[in-house]
């Protein structure tokens, strides 16, 4: 059997001395679409950031392998070059850095995306139009003065430009009006059609999934993945919420507590 594109084993991570992720196991095959759901504060965004190498978080144990390489200790830019991509729940603003220059610079770092200045201008303008973004926005500073929905479209522009092997989309749908939601979901579908890339979609809103064939759904509660299933798990969560996983959470937490107690006894 082919190796997974992403393989996360027993991953534990913390910030400010608080453990947020507990023993995460996750495998994503090339070209597949995974959905990560869970209540507010479960640790979904944290997982996205830790996978991408955000230095705010400390990996306590476990490994992250991507495309056959152990990336656990790699910086975010190296993970990006390897083909990983994270769209932020709250995209950043960088005054003084025009969006166009930012996009040109990140493309120049990727030998496989080499383009002349003219080719780049044509390509990025076409992508902006496809996302129903005014190309004049490309001359504005990154994120500055953009509405919430416009910021999300800029994230999609980066996705279509960079064509990563794995895109982690962190609530790309939040704050979008119904038209913008349509544009963004068409952008995600275009990414899959053109590149065959894999997706890890973090969301509370199932409308963004309507155009996607979901292969696997994962449920995270209190920093643990407590259920895995296929696309049928999504309407189940919509109808019944996350309370149904309480028992699974309690079992996982009790098992962790037992391991910790045993380790303490051995020390
Ligand atoms: N940098 C940080 N420092 C301290 N605590 C953090 C940090 N990042 C996340 N946390 C905490 O970790 C927990 C999980 O947060 P996270 O944003 O990952 O949840 P989430 O599942 O994405 O939630 P939501 O659905 O509301 O976006 C929260 O209690 C949050 O306050």
TrEMBL record:
PANTHER family tied to this protein: ABC TRANSPORTER I FAMILY MEMBER 6, CHLOROPLASTIC (PTHR43204:SF1)
Transmembrane segments: none
Keyword ATP-binding found: yes
Species of the source: Kribbibacterium absianum
One protein family per Pfam: ABC_tran
The entry's keywords: ATP-binding, Nucleotide-binding
Protein name: Fe-S cluster assembly ATPase SufC
Taxonomic superkingdom: Bacteria
Gene3D superfamilies: P-loop containing nucleotide triphosphate hydrolases
Entry keyword ATP-binding: yes
Span of domain ABC transporter: 6-247
Homology family: Belongs to the ABC transporter superfamily. Ycf16 family.
């Amino acid at each position: 059997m082919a190796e997974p594109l992403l393989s996360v084993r027993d991953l534990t991570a913390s910030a400010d001395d608080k453990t947020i992720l507990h023993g995460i196991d996750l495998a994503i095959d090339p070209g597949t679409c995974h959905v990560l759901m869970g209540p507010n504060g479960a640790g979904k965004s944290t997982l996205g950031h830790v996978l991408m190498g955000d230095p705010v978080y400390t990996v306590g144990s476990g490994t992250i392998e991507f495309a056959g390489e152990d990336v656990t200790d790699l910086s975010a830019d190296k993970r990006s070059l390897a083909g990983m991509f994270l769209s932020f729940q709250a995209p950043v603003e960088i005054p003084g850095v025009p969006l166009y220059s930012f996009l040109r610079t990140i493309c120049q770092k990727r030998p496989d995306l080499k383009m002349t200045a003219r080719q780049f201008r044509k390509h990025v303008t076409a992508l902006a139009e496809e996302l129903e973004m005014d190309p004049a926005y490309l001359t504005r500073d990154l994120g500055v003065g953009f509405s919430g929905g416009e910021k999300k479209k800029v994230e999609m522009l980066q996705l279509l430009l960079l064509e990563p092997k794995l895109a982690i989309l962190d609530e790309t749908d939040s704050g979008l009006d119904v038209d913008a939601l349509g544009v963004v979901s068409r952008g995600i579908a275009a990414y899959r059609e053109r590149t065959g890339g894999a997706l890890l979609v973090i969301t509370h809103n199932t409308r963004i999934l309507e155009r996607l064939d979901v292969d696997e759904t994962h449920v995270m509660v209190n920093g643990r993945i407590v259920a895995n299933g296929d696309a049928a798990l999504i309407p189940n969560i919509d109808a019944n919420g996350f309370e149904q996983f309480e028992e699974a959470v309690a079992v996982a937490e009790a098992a962790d507590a037992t391991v910790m107690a045993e380790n303490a006894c051995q020390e």
